[in-house]
Amino acid sequence: MARKYANLKRAIYMASGRLKGGFFVLIVCCILMVIVYTQHLVAELRKDASDIVHFYAIIVQRIASDPIESEALGWFFENVIRQTNFPLVLADTEGNPNSWEGLDIPENDMSPSTVDKVRRVMKKMAKENKPVAITHDGVVISYLYYGDSKLVSQLSLLPYVTLSALSLLVLVAFLGFGSIKRSEQRFIWVGMAKETAHQLGTPISSLLGWMHILRENPSDSSKINTVAMEMKSDIKRLEKVAARFSQIGSEAALTKQDIHIVLSDVIAYIKRRLPHTGREFKIIENYGTLPPLPINRDLFEWAIENLIKNGIDAVKQKMGIIEIVTGELPDNGLYFIDVTDNGSGIKAPRKNDIFKAGYSTKKRGWGLGLNLTKRIIEEYHGGKLFIKETYPGKGTTMRIVLYNES
């Protein structure tokens, strides 16, 4: 399961370029769908307006053909025409407007400038919709010009508004994601460089010290043997560091191992370094029943070291306590490792930040430890790493969940 998970993550990363392309195509398809659907609605509304105007024209020409119904024509204009929700102009055959409605132009102003303004509106209406002729005895006596309602005008602009909004959203998203990705990569590169120097620093300094002792005691066989053993230990540490870094970015081989032995070895190494912290620390091992679990020892030890060191750094009081607890979860095949400290805890707003590359509460920290640990557990081992619980001023429990692959 761990390898499948790691391969899936790698495949997603390698396909990120195609995913961005697919996302862009999806956005374009959405825009086209909005445009097509909006144009369909506009066409339907224009057809409804055309049917209404044709109906008005039939009513007007019937009333106009009967002199007795001349009063009805005034009533029709006053009570029907004025209730339309789209602009309407009644003009003679020469294109001179006689009356209009819904133009935001005074209806009783027949001055030359106002009439010219109405004519310009009529030309625009004629481009949008063909004028409807009103006939009497087969002869055209006037025309009804009509335009789009405010709703149709707004719908016509909708595709452009949608396109602008989505384009801005995509631009902001790509710029934001690109900036975040570049920042994360910068933090990772800087952090990895400093982590490498930190990992190599201790054994190299130790080797330099042993060499100094050898130079001062070139003929003391007992010291030479002691120093040789210590130098061998430091060289093994250097080999371990090299093995850890060599497996970052590649597919790590997992083998089933006794987790408790691995934990005890890591704790023994850290206990030898505790006197250098200048504070008292107590590491408690509270192990439950665990079967052999598939891990990459070099990387898994690195993850456990980071969690314990992080807990040690979080302790501000004189006496620090780190407790390691293991056990089985109710879900079949799931096992946990809890690392608890009595440190300063994590404030609620920062819970989502601690695993991000570059985040650190230490003045000289480079913010890679927990990010790297999470990657080791989740990407290489297919497990989970999260904050189980934390209380400001009291401490934090980090939980690792591993799967027992059969």
Structural descriptors:
five-stranded mixed sheet, 56% helix, 11 strands, 9 helices, 406 residues, alpha+beta, four-stranded antiparallel sheet
Question: How do the helices and strands line up, and which of them pair or pack?
Answer:
Elements: H1 2-14, H2 16-64, H3 70-79, E1 88-91, E2 97-101, H4 112-128, E3 132-136, E4 139-146, H5 150-216, H6 221-247, E5 255-257, H7 259-273, E6 280-286, E7 293-295, H8 297-314, E8 319-328, E9 334-341, H9 369-380, E10 384-391, E11 395-403
Parallel strand pairs: 6-8
Antiparallel strand pairs: 1-2, 1-4, 3-4, 5-7, 8-9, 9-11, 10-11
- Assembly state (oligomeric): single chain
**Average residue pLDDT:** 76
The secondary-structure class comes to alpha+beta
> What fraction strand?
15-25%
Separation of the first and last Cα atoms: 10 Å
Shape: rod-shaped
By DSSP, the count of extended strands is 11
The major pleated sheet works out as:
5 strands, mixed
Helical content (DSSP H or I, runs of 4+): 55-70%
Order of neighbouring strands in the sheet with most strands: 6-8-9-11-10
| SSE succession | HHHEEHEEHHEHEEHEEHEE
DSSP helix count? Answer: 9
Poorly predicted regions are none
Q: What Rg do the Cα atoms give? A: 40 Å
Task: Report on the architecture of this protein.
With 406 residues, this protein is α+β, with helices and mostly antiparallel strands. Helix content is 56%, strand content 17%. It has nine helices and eleven strands. The strands form three sheets. It has a five-stranded mixed β-sheet. A four-stranded antiparallel β-sheet has the order 2-1-4-3, sandwiched between helices. A hairpin with a 3-residue loop joins β10 and β11. α2 runs antiparallel to α5, α5 runs antiparallel to α6 and α7 packs across α8. The model has no long low-confidence stretch (mean pLDDT 76).
